[in-house]
Amino acid sequence: MSSLKKQSSSLTEKAGISSPEITNVSAINQIKNKRRQQPTAEELISGILSGNRTSLSRAITLIESTNPEHAEKANQIIKGCLAHANKSVRVGITGVPGVGKSTFIEAFGTYLTQLGKKVAVLAVDPSSSISHGSILGDKTRMEELVKDENAFIRPSASGENLGGVARKTREAIILCEAGGFDTIIIETVGVGQSETAVHSMVDFFLLLKISGAGDELQGIKRGIMEMADAIVINKADGDNIKKANQAKLEFNRALHLFPPKKSNWQPKVTTCSAIAKEGISEIWNTISDYFEMTKESGFFQEKRHEQNQFWMMETINEQLKSNFYNQPEIISLLEQNKKAVQNDEISPFAAASELLKFYFSKDTK
Ligand SMILES: Nc1nc2c(ncn2[C@@H]2O[C@H](COP(=O)(O)OP(=O)(O)O)[C@@H](O)[C@H]2O)c(=O)[nH]1
Ligand SMILES: [Mg+2]
């Protein structure tokens, strides 16, 4: 009787049908599973050290992330890898777009893996947020190297300023070295100050050129010539061979006019054809000679120590700057002061000093 009554009651008309959950249980489980799948910093470190590429890739992604939680984890991983880093040679390659960097790295990289080396290719390209990563777009030019199990190719960190991209590449070098890569190639396109950034993170700096219309030295930044440990004239094939050899003479002459380098190394000029894979072993021999000479003289280590000091200072400078410019009050005060300076209402120095005074008086984090 009572059960009958219950059934007919309007209050129980939905008996037997559970009310819908406000939250989607399966979605929650999916998220939980995903979280569980995210490897811990320790797991990534041991993965990297045992040569697992997925761990290496994931850790580099954490380095590149702008999420503060990821940054924390990335720092832990770098710390764990640091003791295992430093056992490599680092070669920087620069040259204007179209000179053949990607094609060269394909030929050079496969030559090195055939010698039994483990090669990691990274890039510093501050413009990559527009071009979607210099290496990524070029992976088609590195068909062999992409498939090579002794090579690791990573497109450049995108966006941000050069300082940020460069720092991330430097951190990625540490992880690659800990992952057993003994030859690190850093590619950069010759725009802005990216060569300087790359120069300060590599042991050997190679400038790729092609022979021009005769006036080889025109348009080439003096600073880059000074930084180069070798100049390689690419596309020395077919009708170009003669011109390439002429360019070689001209560059050689020009290089002799520069004061001697601190390393005492006399920069070399060679020709090659990245497409025909010619002249590649000569380039590696030159680089090897350089390493032999500078390791013996102590310059190799000295330069790395200097670079570490430089990067410490760079990181401090960069973070101070970004902290300053990202304060909401500073952003609006800066705008106001810019206008005031524009209208001659305040001197630029007084405006700057006002902003800084405000910044230092604030409890900033
Ligand atoms: N003839 C010739 N063409 C080359 C050589 N190396 C590269 N190239 C061509 O030059 C163009 C630009 O090469 P790429 O590697 O993409 O240059 P990047 O912009 O410096 O990376 C491509 O069409 C290549 O096929 C070479 O040694 N000889
Ligand atoms: Mg390229």
Automatic annotation (TrEMBL):
SMART domains for the chain: AAA
Any GO MF annotation of the entry: GTP binding
Pfam annotation, one family: MeaB
Enzyme class: hydrolase
Assigned EC number: 3.6.5.-
UniProt-listed InterPro entries: AAA+_ATPase, GTPase_ArgK, P-loop_NTPase
Coiled-coil features, chain-numbered ranges: none
Domain AAA+ ATPase residue range list: 87-238
Key words of the record: Hydrolase
Record GO cellular component, one term: cytoplasm
Top-rank lineage group of the source organism: Bacteria
Alphabetized PANTHER family for the sequence: METHYLMALONIC ACIDURIA TYPE A PROTEIN, MITOCHONDRIAL, METHYLMALONYL-COA MUTASE
Family to which the UniProt record says this protein belongs: Belongs to the SIMIBI class G3E GTPase family. ArgK/MeaB subfamily.
Name the record gives this protein: Methylmalonyl Co-A mutase-associated GTPase MeaB
Species in which this protein is naturally found: Flavobacterium resistens
Upper classification of the organism: Bacteria, Pseudomonadati, Bacteroidota, Flavobacteriia, Flavobacteriales
Gene: meaB
